[in-house]
């Protein structure tokens, strides 16, 4: 369905990534957010607090991230599209509730504007060191989807995508920004509402008698109901059966957890978005995401000027990881070069998926700034030998 | 699943209904019945608990304190008038299950 | 004349009967509180379709799974923020939080005081069995001094929270305490809470015969109920600073706080109307579904 025009600030803007993300959320139909301040993410909800009273909906600043991360889920079950924003230390606090969202299949978006870590780290400086945490941060087996914008424009466009994926698959979606993308100001074009495609909540049409909170019609994603509609359903974080009732047996566990995994993995081809350029005939492919992809572009251009055959694969979806694409490339190229603002996270995935068919060269960075393009260029040159 | 263990006669103002299989023999109903209608029986339910039984049906007022105290939702009292309305809805009298029997 | 009984236990329509019998121990008082709750719902004529019940983790947390309502069994300590989200997204909901003393006042303590401060319109029923029961009987912030628990095997030595005092100080508009002996008074308090807008907190002292009572040689559930009957003193309006509990001591019960102040959503609305006037849009234009 089309976006609700009341939330769409159509026009050409000059805003930073944080602000663009907020506009994306509003355009996607988010009408509830619960937040807690943390640099460099706070502007997202500050803008939401300022905008939402004239759009419809509400914002509440909670007493901590533990509260924010579950209050937004109460908002979802009350009928709204909802999200929260945070950075490293808050992301860590939110982990239990990310798991709760995964287990209860609560569609929602968690925005992490990554900064230097670990711990308090570098509150005002970038990093990309929460990528593995986004995937594995909560306990137990579950799947999430993670998106990595590399510009304020993408902060707008991909936030809408994040909400749409959350509703389609009933998962928490991790929106992995970084401090530079969040605080860089660029042109952001917001189209008119009828040009924006928005995925509605998968609300049940079944009668009260027939509805099962976690009944699946073979498509792995159950239909939802909201509190207050008379369905009198039960939701729990305990391992549960199709009725939503706790059923703590290995059989129920197997069935439930595998479905939670498969509902995303089976659609991985459709979910995985990446930007590719001149992969055909490349010797080296640079795999990057977020702000690093823009620095990497410079390095790729310099390498191509030297006559090197360098392809580019920019991850827009980091999770699920595009295993197939990497495996396919690995059989055709010499090496992957993977620059990241961390000491080696997504590079491990590249290496795993490449299965030894191509070399994988990491270009790590402890965070606090962006790479010098020469660091990446040197790695490309090395890899091309 | 309801076993009727005591039907008041013309004098009793109420009667008790007991869901034997839910009872865990905590003794609240026996203790807090204001007119001491109940006692724990020597029968067993399938979990091995002694459910209560009615020893003084004529004293039951239908106050439902037993029902309010019961943590297992295994007993409740109703006023006889309600019971008579319920009776009039049945087409014919059905035989009661044996007292103290399991379901 | 014997007939098959066609009367129904008043609590029965509120139960997920396909999940009976429940897991609570013999002599545990949680089920007793549910009876009072059910009768309060009947008495107050609350619309069950717009009632949501949220619980945390623990023995009392299991209430959510046994009541036939829109019910949410959330994470430990976080029932109140979840309930806040429900209420803000759908202000027409009547939201009850039903959870235990450890869940609400230890891990959930921060959320408890902030929700009371904000006067979020929630009805909180706190079943206080003075222990962490589900996990095997550890010390809770409400465990009276010198009690024996699994994490204080030589006796506790910490002062316990006086929950009515804490909630009074935090700004709750309705604060009451009963025990599981006071079934009718508890029901009445819950009904009164449903008539109020704002943060209501009702503490119910309840036995945990398997752990708290057994480890402290206090008998079983019935012995504890008799103790409640004997040692409770009803003191409506008592200063909350004076209602702390001690091991085997007197239990002051009653309605301690009943005051009025605007609830969170009224204050939010008033502020936005004042600042934004006509520009304020209160309800979302449409909910998340494409058709409602």
Describe the structure.
The complex is a heterotrimer of chains A (385), B (103) and C (292). Chain A is 39% helix and 22% strand. With 385 residues, chain A is an alpha/beta fold. In chain A, the strands form 3 sheets. In chain A, strands 2, 3, 4, 5, 6, 7, 8 and 14 form an 8-stranded mixed β-sheet that branches. Chain A has a 5-stranded mixed β-sheet with strand order 11-13-12-15-16, sandwiched between helices. In chain A, helix 1 packs parallel to helix 2 (42-55), helix 1 (17-28) packs parallel to helix 7 (152-169) and helix 12 packs across helix 13. The model of chain A has no long low-confidence stretch (mean pLDDT 97). By secondary structure, chain B is α+β, with helices and mostly antiparallel strands. Chain B has a single domain, classed as 2-Layer Sandwich (Alpha-Beta Plaits), CATH 3.30.70.20. Chain B has 3 helices and 5 strands, in the order E-E-H-E-E-H-E-H. Chain B has helices spanning 28-32, 65-69, 80-89, and strands at 3-6, 14-18, 38-40, 52-54, 75-79. A 3-stranded antiparallel β-sheet of chain B has the order 1-2-5. In chain B, strands 3-4 form a two-stranded antiparallel ribbon. Chain B starts with a strand and ends in a 14-residue tail after the last helix. The model of chain B is unreliable at 91-103 (pLDDT under 50). With 292 residues, chain C is an alpha/beta fold. Chain C has a single domain, classed as 3-Layer(aba) Sandwich (Rossmann fold). Chain C has helices at residues 30-44, 63-66, 79-89, 101-107, 109-118, 163-170, 183-195, 209-215, 221-231, 264-276, and strands at 51-55, 70-73, 94-100, 123-128, 174-179, 200-205, 232-234, 251-258. In chain C, strands 2-1-3-4-6-5-8-7 form an 8-stranded mixed β-sheet, sandwiched between helices. In chain C, strand 5 (174-179), helix 7 and strand 6 (200-205) form a beta-alpha-beta unit. In chain C, 56% of the residues are buried. The interface between A and C is large, with 56 and 52 residues.
């Amino acid at each position: 369905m089309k976006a609700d025009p009341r939330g769409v600030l159509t026009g050409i803007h000059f805003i930073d990534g944080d602000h663009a993300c907020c506009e994306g959320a509003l355009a996607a139909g988010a009408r509830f957010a619960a937040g807690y301040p943390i640099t460099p993410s706070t502007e997202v909800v500050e803008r939401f607090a300022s905008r939402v009273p004239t759009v419809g909906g509400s914002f509440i600043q909670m007493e901590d991230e533990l509260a924010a991360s579950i209050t937004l889920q109460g908002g979802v079950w009350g009928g709204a599209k909802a999200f929260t924003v945070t950075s490293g230390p808050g992301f860590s606090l939110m982990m239990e509730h990310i798991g709760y969202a995964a287990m209860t299949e609560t569609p929602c978006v968690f925005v992490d504007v990554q900064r230097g870590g670990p711990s308090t780290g570098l509150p005002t400086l970038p990093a990309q060191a929460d990528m593995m945490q986004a995937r594995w941060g909560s306990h137990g087996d579950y799947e999430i989807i993670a998106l990595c914008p590399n510009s304020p424009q993408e902060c707008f466009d991909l936030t809408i995508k994040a909400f749409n994926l959350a509703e389609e698959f009933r998962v928490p979606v991790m929106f992995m920004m970084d401090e530079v993308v969040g605080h860089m100001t660029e042109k952001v074009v917001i189209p008119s509402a009828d040009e924006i495609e928005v995925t509605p909540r998968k609300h049940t049409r079944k009668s009260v008698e027939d509805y099962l909170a976690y009944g699946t019609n073979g498509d792995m994603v159950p239909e939802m109901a909201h509190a207050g509609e008379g369905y009198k359903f039960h939701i729990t974080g305990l391992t549960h059966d199709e009725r939503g009732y706790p059923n703590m047996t290995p059989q129920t566990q197997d069935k439930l957890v595998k479905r939670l995994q498969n509902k995303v993995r089976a659609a991985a081809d459709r979910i995985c978005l990446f930007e590719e350029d001149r992969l055909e005939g490349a010797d080296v492919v640079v795999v990057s995401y977020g702000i690093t992809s823009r620095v990497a572009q410079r390095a790729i251009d310099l390498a191509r000027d030297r006559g090197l055959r360098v392809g580019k694969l920019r991850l827009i979806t980091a999770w699920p990881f595009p295993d197939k694409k990497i495996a396919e490339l690995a059989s055709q190229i010499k090496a992957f070069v993977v620059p990241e603002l961390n000491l080696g996270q997504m590079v491990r995935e590249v290496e795993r998926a490449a299965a030894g068919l191509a070399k994988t060269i990491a270009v790590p960075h402890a965070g606090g700034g962006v790479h010098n393009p020469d660091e990446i260029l040197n790695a490309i040159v090395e890899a091309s030998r | 699943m309801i076993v009727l263990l005591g039907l008041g006669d013309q004098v009793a103002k109420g009667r008790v209904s007991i869901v034997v299989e839910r009872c865990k023999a905590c003794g609240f109903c026996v203790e807090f019945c204001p007119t001491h209608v109940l006692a724990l029986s020597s029968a067993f339910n399938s979990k091995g608990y002694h459910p209560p039984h009615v020893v003084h049906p004529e004293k039951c007022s239908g106050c439902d304190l037993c029902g309010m105290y019961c943590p297992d939702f295994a007993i409740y009292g109703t006023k006889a008038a309600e019971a008579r309305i319920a009776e009039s809805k049945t087409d014919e009298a059905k035989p009661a299950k044996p007292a103290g029997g399991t379901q | 004349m014997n007939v098959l009984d066609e009367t129904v236990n008043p609590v029965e329509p509120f139960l997920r009967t396909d999940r009976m019998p429940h897991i609570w121990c013999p002599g545990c008082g949680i089920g007793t509180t549910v009876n009072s709750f059910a009768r309060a719902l009947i008495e107050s004529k609350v619309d069950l379709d717009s009632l949501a019940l949220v619980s945390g983790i623990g023995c009392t947390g299991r209430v959510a799974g046994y009541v036939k309502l829109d019910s949410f069994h959330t994470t430990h300590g976080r029932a109140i923020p979840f309930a806040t989200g429900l209420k803000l997204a759908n202000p027409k909901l009547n939201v009850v939080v039903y959870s235990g003393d450890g869940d609400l006042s230890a891990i959930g303590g921060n959320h408890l005081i902030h929700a009371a401060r904000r006067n979020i319109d929630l009805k909180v029923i706190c079943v206080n069995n003075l222990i962490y029961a589900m996990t095997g009987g550890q010390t809770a912030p409400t465990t009276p001094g010198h009690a024996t628990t699994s994490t204080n095997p030589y006796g506790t030595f910490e002062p316990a929270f006086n929950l009515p005092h804490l909630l009074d100080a935090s700004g709750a508009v309705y604060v009451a305490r009963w025990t599981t002996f006071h079934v009718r008074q508890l029901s009445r308090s819950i009904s009164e809470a449903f008539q109020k807008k704002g943060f209501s907190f009702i503490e119910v002292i309840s036995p945990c015969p398997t752990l708290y009572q057994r480890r402290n040689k206090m008998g079983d559930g019935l012995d504890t109920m008799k103790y409640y009957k004997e040692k409770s003193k009803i003191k409506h309006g008592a200063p909350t600073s004076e209602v702390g509990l001690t091991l085997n001591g007197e239990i002051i019960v009653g309605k301690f706080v009943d005051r009025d102040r605007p609830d969170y959503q009224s204050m939010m609305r008033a502020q936005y109307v004042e600042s934004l006037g006509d520009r304020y849009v209160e309800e979302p234009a449409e909910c998340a579904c494409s058709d409602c």
